[in-house]
Design brief:
By secondary structure, the chain is α/β, with parallel strands linked by helices. The chain has helices spanning 4-12, 20-32, 36-53, 58-69, 99-112, 127-140, 153-167, 183-200, 218-231, 249-257, 278-286, and strands spanning 87-92, 117-122, 143-145, 171-176, 206-213, 235-239, 261-265, 273-275. Helix 9 (218-231) links the parallel strand 5 (206-213) and strand 6. The structure holds guanosine-5'-diphosphate and magnesium ion.
């Protein structure tokens, strides 16, 4: 995967002289890459100590950076047991991050593996959101549970679970609103939905997944904090990790909140999703070939 940010990091380490201006540029680059001040400081200090001690080549230096970042990033395997009780993925996140698209991609991903899915249109706040999900369901040849715009999202999810149990469907992918009249209103609504799901399905069958847009940087960190505080998250889907995105925010989220990453979205097509791989992600992030 090509990544402009990674290339910049790698090219910095190809320099012969690691003087103060090198470290300034390294720190600027890490900040621009959304790694945050604390991780930037830790990395810079770590590299300073190494430079004093020994002379490593470019890939040696990059491997040192990678080793320091590794503990902050983890993955979670969201494979589904073959069983009669459905799994539900409650997909959360602010508007525009790629929730609905990721639901369609995940549905496609699991359908390809032979699972039956059902889409739950619990973003009832905007009529367009229901239409968008309906279109995906039609294209993917899967079932959708929906009600009219403005209806109670908790009721839509309730119906989705009941009907999926009755039909022995294996995975419910529930869309949620990313915006409401107020932030408090949205968070309260999500807590209500959370209670409904938790009362109907065992914890092992229920995953709360936050979608984070890789291009949003520091905002993504705040979103993760807010949603994690509100409902407690099990996993993250990182979207838009294509083009010029940096993705360093995911390191901050991992360091502060310890939320693992399940999938990465790399485009707008149904196949543009893959399970998160820590090694590949870190290599891309810091430009290690
Ligand atoms: N390039 C790219 N675009 C994406 C990706 N995921 C979603 N999008 C686009 O982001 C926009 C918002 O997506 P949508 O699923 O409607 O976001 P939602 O408001 O969170 O449901 C759409 O134009 C999507 O095509 C991705 O992984 N890569
Ligand atoms: Mg949506």
């Amino acid at each position: 995967m090509k990544n402009f940010f990674g290339k910049r990091i790698a090219s910095l380490f190809s320099r012969n002289v690691m003087d103060e201006s090198f470290f300034e540029e390294l720190e600027d680059t890490l900040i621009e890459g959304d790694l945050g001040t604390q991780i930037t400081f830790d990395l810079s200090e770590h590299i300073r100590r190494i430079v004093k001690k020994q002379r490593l080549d470019q890939s040696g230096m990059l491997l040192e950076m990678k080793a320091l970042l590794e503990p902050y990033v983890s993955t979670i395997d969201l494979s589904i047991p073959k069983q009669d009780t459905p799994m539900i993925f409650l997909v959360l996140g602010v508007n525009g991050v790629g929730k609905t698209t990721s639901i369609a991609k995940m549905s496609h991903w699991y359908q390809k593996q032979g699972y039956t899915t059902v889409l739950s249109a619990a973003d009832t706040f905007r009529a367009a959101a229901i239409d968008q999900l309906s279109l995906h369901a039609q294209r993917l040849g899967t079932r959708i549970v929906k009600q009219s715009p403005g209806s109670d999202p908790g009721a839509v999810i309730f119906d989705s679970i009941d009907s999926a149990i009755a039909r022995k469907e294996q995975l419910i992918l529930a869309d949620t609103a990313g915006r409401m009249h107020t932030k408090e209103h949205l968070l309260r609504e999500l807590q209500k939905i959370d209670k409904i799901v938790a009362a109907k399905l065992p914890g092992a069958n229920y995953k709360k997944i936050l979608v984070i847009d890789a291009t949003t940087g520091q905002n993504g960190v705040r979103q993760a904090e807010l949603f994690h505080e509100t409902v407690g998250l099990d996993a993250i889907v990182l979207t838009k990790y294509d083009s010029a995105s940096k993705g360093g925010s995911i390191i901050q989220i991992g360091k502060n909140l310890h939320i693992p990453i399940a999938f990465v979205g790399v485009g707008e097509g149904y196949d543009d999703i893959m399970p998160f791989d820590r090694d590949t992600f870190l290599n891309t992030l810091i430009g290690l070939e």
